[in-house]
Amino acid sequence: MPTTNGFRALSGVVILFMLATVACAPSASQTAKPSSGVVEPKTIRDSIVGGGWSTAPELIAQEKGFYDAEKLTVEVNVAGQSAATCQQLLAKAVDIARCSLNDMVQAVEASGAPLIQFFGLYASPLNYSIMAKPNINTWADLKGKSIMVGGPKDNTVYFFRAMARPNGIQDSDYDFQFAGASSARFAALKSGAVDASILTDPFDYQAELEGFKKVDALVPKYVNAGNYGYIIHVAQPDWAKSHQDELVRYIRAQLKAVDWIYDPANKQEMFSIVGPKNNITQETFDRLYKRDVQDDHYWSTDGKITDAGVQGVLNSLIELDSLKSPAPPPSKYYDLTYLNAALASMGRQ
Known about the structure:
This protein is an alpha/beta fold. The protein folds into two domains: 3-124 and 227-345, D-Maltodextrin-Binding Protein, domain 2 (3-Layer(aba) Sandwich), CATH 3.40.190.10; 136-217, D-Maltodextrin-Binding Protein, domain 2 (3-Layer(aba) Sandwich), CATH 3.40.190.10. Helix content is 38%, strand content 16%. The strands form three sheets. The protein has a six-stranded mixed beta sheet with strand order 3-5-4-6-13-7. A five-stranded mixed beta sheet has the order 10-9-11-8-12, with helices on both faces. It has a two-stranded antiparallel ribbon with strand order 1-2.
């Protein structure tokens, strides 16, 4: 069967991937240590947006035996979109999901959906760059120009405004055009259909190589882990309460994978695991590693969820008219019970 980003497609329109099927035997010196005591094997069904670089801890947890050490099998369902992962969770097609906090809050508020965050794997929001035609060098040059963002109420609208306004660019100074994915926005920029686009890596990097100008970047100057929550792990409260042991074991395996990633001694082995499964060259890996592992610490070592990060997302939804003011308290949207138990079991509290 065909493979995508290191996960094996099994069946259906919604592609189910069994991470346990792609495991390689860990080396003797790097093998994860088994949990103490008698632990019953369990399976967790997880829904993610897609593969790619951001899923590195998932691949490491499998390949290096961190799930095995916790006697967990993790079945990963690739949904394609953040909102779709929430929908799969609400339909009980999966046990846990990874979606943007933005989408999770909207699902909760639109339908009273019983969802809670239980773990924050990502320490930093996804970075975006404003990439523009070669003759555009500054924010002032963007006045009167066409800018492509994700959608009328997409978080890329909020991100663009968060960058533009402090630089003297008012909302009336430009026109928005819309395309949902960075790939489509990059294509529009290359074709000359728009003057600038908000792009994520690797499209911003590729645009720069092709001569387009980087006007500004979102993280950490405007948005960061302290003021905006990002992709989080979500569960239904009733399921979480009745499966606390599995969640604690899952969080523990994820955190151990992140620890492994941050050990400089593992850099080249990380490339051998993540690179081929994501079609990442050594050059691209070295760039991503420097930015996300060495400099920005993209993945969280403690999984903490903060009121400030949640509040930043609530503020953005009010800004986009997707949530009425005043917003509920941030504590409505998370439960740290399972994370705290995992951290305590690792001696980190």
